Amino acid sequence: MWFFYDVTHRLHRYCNPISADKIEQLGCILDLQQGMRVLDIACGFGQLLITYANDFGIHGVGVDASPLAVKRALKRKREQAPNAEMQFVHERGENYRLADDEQQYDVVMCIGASWIWNGYEGTVKAMRGFCKPSGLLVVGEPHWKTEPSAEYLATQDFDRTTFFTLHENVTMARDMGLRLVYLIVSNEDDWDQYETLQVAGVDRFARENPDHPDLPAIRERVDTGYESYLKWGRDTFGFATLVFRVPESE
User: What range does the domain containing 193 cover?
Assistant: First the structure.
């Protein structure tokens, strides 16, 4: 599984359907300051933390279950932010724990990986445990733009109940005592770039490794997924990055 994502996301700067401009916008909304502690669960190639370390001087910890992703994150750190206060940890997100003497984080992020805690609600609850009072949670989560067709769902590894509408995502967090501070909705350009870069990544991998034994299966999976995206997903499946304020006291 990890090798597939390493191949298909090799050309991505950020491993989600969100543009660099929106990442910059998010950093400003978070009001990141020098020395603030930021945790990114399922950090992928680490670019979000690296960007914010360079732009704002944050101290970051990135956690990812993929050894290949952590390897790329460490390489990017060496190349882009060699002096940043940052570490990348190879660990499953659901197994990550604060050390006994470790303080909670100012900002806790999980972008596009709510499967770690079996869905959106479980993810928001788990993230709160890492965040200090009055801190911020940043959750990147898909949502239904329209009711998905049976044909579309038949091409996916999730069903209608896996995700919710954007309004439902906001409401569930509010019911858990969180206050919405901001949200950024990804547009079609963000999605087109995210999906098409996977096609381009496989094409480059194929040219560099034409005889790789996994190439036919990877190419078939990506081609099938891209066809489904163009036919149904582009109009059905959305993505938003939501920022919530944790209460000052429980």
Answer: 146-249
- Tally of structural domains, the chain: 2
Assigned domain for 17 exists? no
Residue 25 inside a domain? The answer is: no
pLDDT, tens digit, for every residue of 38-97? 999 999 999 999 999 999 999 999 999 999 999 999 999 999 999 999 999 999 999 999
Contact assessment for residue 42 and residue 9, using Cβ atoms and an 8 Å cutoff: no
Cα–Cα nearest to 172, from 95, 242, 247: 242
Model pTM score: 0.95
Taking a C-beta distance cutoff of 8 angstroms, is the pair 240, 186 a contact? yes
- Tell me the CATH number at 72: 3.40.50.150
Tokens read off for 135: 């801190």
Amino acid at 172: M
Mark whether 240 and 165 lie in a shared domain: yes
What's the CA gap between 38 and 245, in Å, rounded?
Answer: 14
Same domain for 159 and 236?
Answer: yes
